[in-house]
Amino acid sequence: MNYIIFDLEWNQCPRGPAFENPRIPFEIIEIGAVKLNDAFEIVEEYSSIIKPRIYKSLHKHVRKMLNYDEAFLRTGRPFDMVCREFMNWCGDDYIFGTWGTGDLVQLQRNMDYYYMNKFAAPFKYYNIQDIFAEYYIELGPCKLERAVEAMGLPVEEAFHSAINDARYTAQIFQNLSKKNLKDQYSYDYYHEPKDKASEILSFHRTYSEHITRGFHDRTELMEDKEISAFRCYRCKRKISKKIKWFSCGQHTFIGVGHCWYHGYQKGVIKIKTANDGKLFAVKKIIPIQKSDVEDIRNRQLELREKRREKRRNH
Questions:
Q1: 26-51 as b/e, with b when 16 or more CB fall inside 10 Å?
Q2: The listed CATH number (3.30.360.10, 3.30.420.10, 3.30.499.10, 3.40.50.10610) that belongs to domain 2-183
């Protein structure tokens, strides 16, 4: 299997959000990628400029960041042509690696615009920004430039060029420990699972994740027995609820469970809107200390009191 470490540059409407195309608020203008083999050696590179079709003038913030202008972009090729070439270059047996989550979202959104998205369900990839943050806890999910500096990698080319950023990301990936790599994958869920049978339930060393199918409304989603259940992130057994799910914002629910073997665990349900308008959930279960339980309970009581106060005032 190969590792495709890629980076994108994209433009947005120079006249502001009110004038953007809602189907494609960000238009990709450059793809850069590095292919690593299973020994993590660089074997190939891919780079291409894309001639913009929707936003032909650069947004002022994008212009400041990039190392080229509109005249150079006009020398590029159409997105659909470049994207098909890029996907063919990737091959058949590969896994993506990116710095953060944004590039995969924008790639698929642009592919959707041209009716060519072949990723119809969640798939595994490596979020190298998050993996880096596991080893450099004090920095957290930082910018690529900061990570390159922290690892002492040589800076020989300018940042904010897709191929250069892909090279830097690949170098970081090469230099990170590989002992937990099989456990460090993430799921891209630009497209949610289509039915119950294809829902994602994955268990990792430090958390578990459940990505659900779509539901018509929030009530239907939260009443689903598997979504509302607590399963231990380690032993996968259903565990007792110590704090029932409570709303912490319009799209987030929090709860606490306890496993006799693996201790207290916090659950977080994030409700997302799918492309077809349905709602799906991403639920994570993570271990916590006993002292954290009281903090969560206090948060629940605080929110409950705020809601009561709001009702009294109305």
A1: bbbbbbbbbbbeeeeeeeeebbbbbe
A2: 3.30.420.10
